Each structure stands twice: as structure tokens, then as C-alpha cells.
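Q: Convert this sequence to C-alpha cells.
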Amino acid sequence: MHDHHHSQSNDKLELLKIASALILFTAAIIMNITDTFKILIFFAAYLIAGGDIIIKALKNIFKGEIFDENFLMVIATVGAFAIKEYPEAVMVMILYRIGELLQHKAVEKSRKSISQLMDIRPDYANIEKNGNLTKVNPSDVKKGDIITVRTGEKIPLDGTVIDGHALVDTSALTGESVPRELRKDSHAISGCINTNGLLKIKVDKEFEESTVSKILELVEHASSKKAKAENFITKFARYYTPAVVAGALILTLIPPIILNEPFNLWLQRALTFLVISCPCALVISVPLGFFAGIGGASKEGILIKGACYLEALSKPDSVVLDKTGTLTKGTFKVTEIHPANITENELLELCALAENYSNHPIAVSLKEAYKKNIVTEKIRDVEEIAGKGVKANIEGDEILAGNANLMRTFNIQFTETDTAGTIVYSAKNKKFLGYIVISDELKEDAESAIKNLKSLANQTIMLTGDSKKTAQYISEELGINKFYAELLPSQKVEKLEELIANKENNKSIIFVGDGINDAPVLTRADVGIAMGGLGSDAAIEAADAVIMDDKPSKIAKAILIAKKTMSIVKQNIIFALTIKALFLILGAYGFVTMWGAVFADTGVALLAVVNSLRALKS
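A:
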């Protein structure tokens, strides 16, 4: 808020300076006064409009940064005063000032789209003390404290709802307008707004570790990761400006000496040449284009950590996707029950009892499908067999529930199935009881997401730790080009390394995962995209881009935004360089006056800035 007022007062001061300089300039032209007075009024207008620029140029000279646009403006206008072109010198500064103000407004507009995301920063947390709610700084709240969030307030820290029911607005984080429901035992994410109801939340993480804190840190550092195009402009300006000054010196000295032309005429051309040469269109519009692209993406709930990743996203070779939690919901459900010499209900009951003490998603899905209360007294001697399943004593019978390897370990005669999904085989006292199929549901937009990605990248590839049968089923269902199944996390990294080694030159391998166990792969890819950044610390840490909700369709959206941004940046570079080159040639031959030079410089910069702002609209 302070920054907003500071920016507004700066703009008012700028407008006041421009208006005062214009009034003095007009007075000097229309008033019937002596030449000395005219020169003094022009000089006063020049100082009001260009005083700051002169100070900046002098400061930069002392820092060793001689060749910048401030230096070019000062040299050109002081030269104009020297050859008695007073109105031109003043107008150069006034128009330059107007251009700067309009550019500042444009930059502010694109910054606002990112600062809207900064509005997620909570101002306070409510803690109950002696029966009263007290507002405290979120960073003073400890893990395990109970906070209260009333209607209209932001959730300040991550935690678990212990009491209350409410709908929360997550749009600042996800770009989605549909509210999310929170009730007892729900996970509450900082940065969301409570739209109705009262929530009591037990804090799981301190403020520095919370989702909101990590997102703010990510956004604040986004501008520091420069793209190749930005680095090109920085290098270009370093060589371009001294070359232009050298060109202006040659224009001033060579024609009068060799061709015996009037010195004043060529000095005026050289000064016009300097004004045209200002590289502001490039220096401002290229970073602004990337900034606007990052801002446009953040409106869609896609956080991109810097311009270099936006650039890499724009040229995908392969899009590699993890299966669970990325293409599928990661929520397992019992879809088929195939008993042998037993009823469906009996098979489900025995498996649910055996898996009762496990928190594994497969165990949870069995207990959910069973629906009844489990009588724990029936269960004894539970033994988890790593990577295979469980053995338990249920009412005196030895029950096995797990994968095919578990059956083989205990020498059970069983019929192996090749059904797609996770299979839980069961046996009672060494006799096969049948099997249960547990499937992970595909996300609603997974199919359309893959279709869009195939049109944007050379190929789509799925990596999964799941069985070949399940991977093949999902691949065929979604139309994925290739899949690799039964992979351990380390093998996923190896596969990615292989793809990176064989990719097309200058293109990127994009990996998309849910961030929970994909951190090594996310870090290794040219661009690592984490899905469902809400609540996944590992995702926000390891990824180069974070999709805040769980929609795979946003991957194609991110690539499209990146492609549009890069095309805008390239347009700006080509447009600015072409116009500059044309006007520099015309200026050198005397076809463009200093007035025309200012319009060319400021006009090109403004057109490039307006073009950059198109990147805000995704």
C-alpha cells in the first residue's frame, strides 16, 4: 500500500515537472521579449524537464557507466544549446520525459498483475488469549498453535481445520473462481480467503515454511533469472552506445574536414543521430515483455520462476509426465472384486481387516470400500512385508493380502491376472481367496491436455512406477506417444538424462510431476513443472514453474503463454532495430530533424511497450 501511494506521488511530481516545462517553453516562444530573456526561460524549462537526467548521467559517469541513454540525451541537448537550437533542446527533454512517464505506467500495469498475487500476504493471525481474539504477526505463531479465521479474512498459515466449516476463495493462488470447501480435518492453505463461516485451524508449519511464504519468495525472485534475449540486449547496449557516440564524432568531424562542408550543419546532424540512437525501446520493452508474460501466467495460477524458464518453455522437444497425481487423481478406489470360493463381501472384509493398520493409499481405499466399522479385537499379529503386502491373524486364521510377489513368497497356488490397475491378491490359511482391483481415476481434463500437448511438442512421454499393464492402459486411453513403466525414482532420472542427451538442439525437455516424490526429476529437466503446488513444499522448492491447481490442461496453457511472450519479445527486438537503423541513416543524411528524432525514439519505445503488454492477456 505504501508503494502504491509512493508511486502515485511520484507520478504527480513528474506531471508537474512536464507541465511547468511546457508552460515555460510556450511562454518563451510566444512572448515578445529579448533574446537573452528567451534563452533564460528556455534554460529554466530545460533544467525542470531534464535536471534529473543530467544528475543521473553525471552519477553514472563517476560510476564508470558512461554510455547509457541519459548520457546520450545530455550530450545531444547540450550540443543543441551550443548551436543555439534552444527550442529543440528543451523539447527533446520534455518529450523524453513524457515517454518515460508513459513507459513507467505500462511497467506498473504489468507489475500490478504480479502484485495481485502479492495480496495473498497475510497481515495478521487471530490467536485466542483469555477468551478474547488477539491479532498477532503471522511470523510469531508457532507450530501447534490454534488460530481462528473469520469470514472475509485470509488464512495466514498452513494447518488442519479442527473446528468449523467454510468455503474458501483460492483464486489468488490458482486462478480458479470455484471456491474450495473446508471442514474438520481438511488441510487449510495460507493465502486463501475465508468467504463464509468460522474456522479454527491447528498450525502445521511456521510462517517461513508456509505455502504463502514460499510463493512470495518465488515471485520476488522471478525477475532475477534472465532469459538469453535479455542478456543479449544487455550485451548489445554495452557495445552499441559507444559505437553510436563514435559514429556521431565521425559525422561531426569528417565531412567538414574532407568535404569542406559547414561544421554547424554536421554537428546538428550528429546530435540528431545521437537522439535517434537512444536504445530505450529495447532496454525497456524486452524485460517488460518477459515480466508481462510471467504476470499473465500468474493470473492463470501458473507461477514461472524467471524469464529463462519462460524462454525454455516456449520450445518444447518432449513433455514428460509422471502418472500418479499428474494425469491421475492419486485417489485409489476399489473397482472390481473377483472372489474364489468366497463371497465378494467376505473377500473385501478380510482384506480391509488385514490392511487396517496401514496408511498406504491402497489400504485406505480397501477400508473406504468396506464402509463398516472395523472390530480391531479380531486382528492380531499384523506383519507388513515390504514391497509385497501384509500378513495378519484374523480370528485365528492366517490372512495374506498383497501383490503377486506376496503369493509367490508363501507358495500360494493362485491365478495371476493382467487386468489394468493395482491388484490385491488374498489367501486364507495358504488357500487362494481371489483378488481385488484398485484403480486410480484419470483427471477430467487429462485427455484434452495430452491432445493439446501433442500439438505443441514433438512427443509426450509418461514415466511411472506402476505395472506395464496399467501404464499401457492409461497411455492408450489418453493417446500418449510413449511410456516407461515399473520405474524407481532413480530410474526416472536416468530416463530423463537419456531424453536430454537425444533432444533436438536448442529445444527443451519439460518434466511435469506432482512434486511429492519427483523432486530429483523436476530439478534435472530443462523446465520442471510441479502440479498442484497448493500444499506441496517439495514442488515449490524443486520446480521451475508451479501449476497451483491440479489441472493438467494448464501445462499447454503455460507453453502457449511462453510462446506468445517470446514472439512479442522477438517482434520488439526486430521492430526497434529496424526503425533505429532506418532513422539513423536518414538522420546522418539530414532528412530527419531533432524533433523527428525525438518522436522516432519515444514513439518506437512506446509502441514496443504497448506490444509487450499484450503478454499480460493470456
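The chain has four domains: 2-116+223-291+564-616, 125-156+158-204, 303-327+443-548, 329-441.
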